[in-house]
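Narrative progress, year one. The postdoctoral researcher (J.K.) led the effort to move from monomer predictions toward full complexes, under supervision of the PI. The following entry was the first complex the group processed end to end, covering 534 residues in total.
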Amino acid sequence: MSAPSLVPAGASPHAIRLACRSGAFAGLTSGIAAGYVQGNIVILPRDWADDFLRFCQRNPKPCPLIAVGDPGDPAFEELGLDLDIRTDLPAYRIYDHGKLVAEVPDIIAHWRKDFVAFVIGCSYSFEEALGAAGLGIRHVECGSIVPMYRTNLACRPAGRLSGKMVVSMRPFTPAHAIRAIEITSCFAAVHGAPVHLGAPEAIGIADLSAPAFGDPVPLRPGEIPVFWACGYTPQTVIEHAAPPLAITHAPGRLLVTDLLNARLGAT
Amino acid sequence: MSAPSLVPAGASPHAIRLACRSGAFAGLTSGIAAGYVQGNIVILPRDWADDFLRFCQRNPKPCPLIAVGDPGDPAFEELGLDLDIRTDLPAYRIYDHGKLVAEVPDIIAHWRKDFVAFVIGCSYSFEEALGAAGLGIRHVECGSIVPMYRTNLACRPAGRLSGKMVVSMRPFTPAHAIRAIEITSCFAAVHGAPVHLGAPEAIGIADLSAPAFGDPVPLRPGEIPVFWACGYTPQTVIEHAAPPLAITHAPGRLLVTDLLNARLGAT
């Protein structure tokens, strides 16, 4: 299920962003710009952005904030050379009162002076570290999208924003689960250690074979499911709160930054 | 099940060692000298010590070596002021060809110029960190000795020494298990992260209610058993290998050092 990529395998993050900007690239960002941090994007009008910033601060596992922009400013100097958040992603989704109304290649025409952009860490960063440690990641092996589930784990509310945590699941043997916990606990900027392992029903998941988002993956004998807080959480929370306007990245089409994944992992 | 303690609650490690030396204290060392590293002791003749040193190097989780003495030298300057390994533990056990033949208050009369003493990390150090993080430790709550089990996990052999790993078990909720893994992974000098969690039968444990050593503890609904490599492993390996002579600490009566537990935890 790899997307047709119009960027060379070794393209720099800057080259990828420019390809997004020109319209030459609109594909999935998994598997490109190896070694570099990718980010989920949420853009909100200022009066909602304040709530969201507090929501992220109170829920660092599902909403690990890598950067927040100044109102009206589309640049993120600390994240990348010449970065323009309005054009440098492969595709964007626009929500009107919580309803998806459009998927667009850039948001130049929609940008407003009161928009605040948030860049939120993504599991690609820690999956790279898990792979480097020799742990097989099932959905990568299957060439599918990580299975994600709604849970009964409540996020800490902030203003008009509240909701339950969405989690992603990766199956491991117990020994590999322990190693995965050790590794991901060093990646607080990208969801950190898991929030649960073992019995899915303990966090309100009725059926592992029916994820709310993504694709199911098989568990092999002796494996246990390990659950990480997922960057899909803020998106579902915002859809539920239904602000007049919100913009996010399109699924699987993230912001590629100049930051190195290795910089995120405390050692 | 707390032992009668003849040392004041706030006694320094040095004062405790002197009380052991004079015979004033021969009790359990759990719960005394809070904050300080305690060590399991193994003493072997030099020709066996070489095998054992390699065994520890190859099996750092069950045998985390804190210090090894010079042949014939009972001092450990790096571990404590004025420390004498022959007198400064509450009690010792002597094994003749793998058979326990005596429990004695000191080993002055047994000491030889070819003896090499090993000090091995103990779970007291990481249990203190778990408690400080707000995790309840079941056997401490029960006032009993941690349950320990023989497993089918093979240690890497070294010379005449080989055998299966012994593990200790602490039950936790999944969320607390994850936190416990994060914390103990920083304590490589005292067994480090767990070696297994969940299904006991996967590592050859048939019945959690029948530990090989220590006392069983109850698991509450939703809890999973979490298994750490245990300092009882070297003792069982040595008993099995049956060297002509071996000396260990008596169960629960460890060497109290001047090292701070906090120094062991990488952060």
